[in-house]
Design a protein that fits this description.
Elements: E1 9-13, H1 19-32, E2 36-39, E3 48-53, E4 56-66, E5 72-81, H2 84-102, H3 106-146
Antiparallel strand pairs: 1-5, 2-3, 3-4, 4-5
Helix pairs in contact: 1-3, 2-3
Length: 149
């Protein structure tokens, strides 16, 4: 599992491919690992989204720079996304835990704090799983590009 963070990757290709082909290649590499991937639409700020679980996913962007004579620089960037309701639940649980602890409700406060920590850990785990899948797929495409395939 990878640490959930933004991971840029850049690689050079001597063989020209359409930008859509690069995206399809990354998508295929994700599916080959058993990942659940969704393509972005025309108005999305991402090309592919990899689901890591209920509480985390990775949104990835693939950009291709043309350098003439069929040479391309491919840049892949990803970022972990946690659903807003999950963040809201963590904030509410922490707030309730703090309120309970300040009013001498130790059992309730500790229970709520543990629930908030468990939810945050689940989000980090799911985001990390998606990030690991994305990184492995991009590394596979990068290796294929280096081999000239």
């Amino acid at each position: 599992m990878a640490f959930p963070m933004v991971r840029p990757a850049t690689f050079w290709s001597e063989k020209w491919k359409a930008p859509e082909a690069w995206i399809a290649e990354v998508e295929e590499a994700i599916r080959a690992q058993g990942g659940i991937v969704v393509r972005g639409g025309n108005w999305d700020s991402w090309d592919l989204s990899v689901r890591g679980g209920l509480f985390g996913r990775v949104s990835g962007l693939v950009v291709v720079e043309e350098h003439g004579a069929g040479k391309q620089l491919v840049r892949c960037r990803s970022g972990v996304r946690v659903p807003t309701p999950a963040w809201a639940a963590v904030i509410v649980l922490v707030t309730l835990a703090a309120a309970a602890l300040t009013n001498a409700g130790w059992l309730a406060g500790v229970s709520l704090a543990v629930a908030a920590a468990a939810l945050a850990i689940a989000a980090a785990r799911d985001g990390g799983a998606a990030a690991s899948c994305w990184k492995a797929a991009v590394d596979r495409v990068k290796a294929a590009a280096a081999a000239g395939v």
